[in-house]
Amino acid sequence: MSRKIALFGLGDDLYKDDWSQENIVAIGALNTDSNTPKTIELNGQPTPVLSVTQLKKLSFDFIIITDTSQFNKIYITCAQACIPQFKIISYDTYIHHVRNKVEYNVDDEQTILKLIGDKNIQRILDMDLYFADGPSTNRNRGNYAELNTYNLPIHANLELIGLAGKEYWPIWDNIYNRIYHKLDSVLLQYFDLLLVMKIRPIEDYIHLINSTYGSWKYALIQIEKDSLAHNELNNLDYTGLNLKATWLQAQNTVWLLLSRQKQITELYVICHKPYELPNLPPIYHPIHAGKDGHEGFGLPGDDTGENISFLNPYINELTAIYWMWKNTTADIIGTSHYHRFFVNEPADSYISDSHNFLDEQTIHALLNNHDIILRRSVPYGNTEDCFRKYMGYDFYEAAKRIFQDIIRGVAPDYEEAFLFALSRHNCGHAFNMFITRRHVFDAYCNWLFPIVLEAANRIDFAQIPKPPHSRIIGFMGEALLMPWLMKQRLRIKELPVVEL
User: Fold this and answer.
1) Is the pTM of this model over 0.85?
2) Distance from CA of residue 414 to its chain's centroid?
3) Considering 20, 132, 326, 360, which has the largest number of Cβ atoms within 10 A of its Cβ?
4) Where are the alpha helices (DSSP H) in 202-292?
5) What's residue 426's pLDDT?
6) Residue 195, helix vs strand vs coil
7) CATH among 3.30.390.30, 3.20.20.70, 3.40.50.150, 3.40.50.300 for 106-260
8) Strand 254-260, strand 243-249: pairing
């Protein structure tokens, strides 16, 4: 159902629109004498013409002033009749700020700011620049003479990220910490709140929830009440997405508040031989990498479900990471090695002798302010020099050409980053060690494995008799983390590791 609208005034603006998107309840007139028509046909229906006294008794979302020549007089008449002032708007305001766009009023903004405080929200992605419509060009929202009951500002410590399309004005930098122009630019970051205030068709709401899932703890979505979108979103089953849905009443709309429930954290300890592991928190899960065709040594293997375990002699621990990608559902996921573990110490060095292994609480705290945890980069010079020294110039150059050709075909936007990371960057995050949220992990694996598996198809291992040369794909796969990171806007937390 569309909004309930009252039109006020018999001027030209009454006929600017066919009003087919709205439910017109009545038309107001300053004078309702014998010369004033009793009804006017709009949308093919006779619409009653009423005085302001009659009009105020009806239920409507907005009064749109449709006689600009008497705008001031109509506005004052409606306000004196105690019609809420935020409901009295011009046709232009309705078109540009209400119909299929952001529906803003100060009361609702204050309610949102209270929710932000109550939920201890520290980082927001404002999809529709909702706060740019506020009663101030900076973060002050209180102590206005006409709005003296409004006293909640946008908190100075709130990290507010805006998303703007082509319409961007630098003055908005007074409100937002940063404004991006594409959702893809921030899709892998994590936010306490996704704020969606623009009225959208149902398919756009569904796409937005699905495409950003995993990127937020809460999502607050404004919806036109009693609309198709309202009805369909109200009937969705959110439990399968581990979400709780709460409906909130706004001034003229409804809000859907989605909140993530408890998040599962799993760190996989990648092992390829028997090893006496230290005493670890329960979130650590040892896994036998390359178990395919072997008896094993008492650990679950990467040879179940959808797997590429047979490639382990050539791609190293990437077989375990592939298995994690295809066969697990943890919200927060990460890797360590049987003898290498992240420790909760300052990253003054990339090696530590601490046994202060990360637990679930520490990981959650770190990922509140970061998107991925990585081993501190190793200062070994550039990756290319390392490979050339380790495997020989000619062999490495041939392998590099294969990978460059594959990247040019399947991920051409990354070719320059690939070359830069190998030859001109003086550090790298080694050993495929990371901890991150699921949506970041999935994005990386979706990018990485088409490259790695195509390289496995192109390289004839029969011509590469023994390690380390036979493991070139694994080593290059490890090096691919850096060019992928270079193209993302991820907030990185570096930690040292202990090597047992």
Assistant:
1) yes
2) 22
3) 132
4) 202-212, 228-234
5) 78
6) strand
7) 3.40.50.150
8) antiparallel
How far is residue 360's CA from residue 281's CA, in Å, rounded to a whole number? 8
Q: Note the CATH number of domain 4-97.
A: 3.40.50.720
465 phi-psi bin (left φ>0, alpha ψ -120 to 50, beta other): alpha
Low-confidence ranges of the chain (pLDDT < 70): 1-2, 145-148, 380
Is-contact 394 460, C-beta < 8 A? Answer: no
The pLDDT value recorded for residue 378 is: 75
Q: How many CB atoms lie within 10 A of CB 402?
A: 17
pLDDT at 425: 81
What's phi and psi for 6, nearest 5 deg? -110, 130
What span, in angstroms and rounded, lies between the C-alpha atoms of 377 and 375?
Answer: 6
Say how many CA atoms lie within 13 Å of 496 toward its Cβ: 16
How many angstroms separate the CA atoms of 103 and 99, rounded? 8
* Same fold for the pair 4-97 and 106-260: yes
Cβ(472)–Cβ(313) below 8 Å: no
Q: Residue 119: phi, psi to the nearest 5?
A: -90, 5
Residue 440, phi-psi category: left (phi > 0), alpha (psi -120 to 50), beta (remainder): alpha
Q: How far apart are CA 219 and CA 205, in angstroms?
A: 11
State whether residue 127 is helix, strand or coil: coil
Classified as helix, coil or strand, 23 is: strand
One-letter amino acid for residue 285 of the chain = H
The answer to whether the beta carbons of residues 464 and 342 sit under 8 Å apart is no
First CA to last CA across the chain, in angstroms? 65
Q: Position 337: which residue type?
A: H
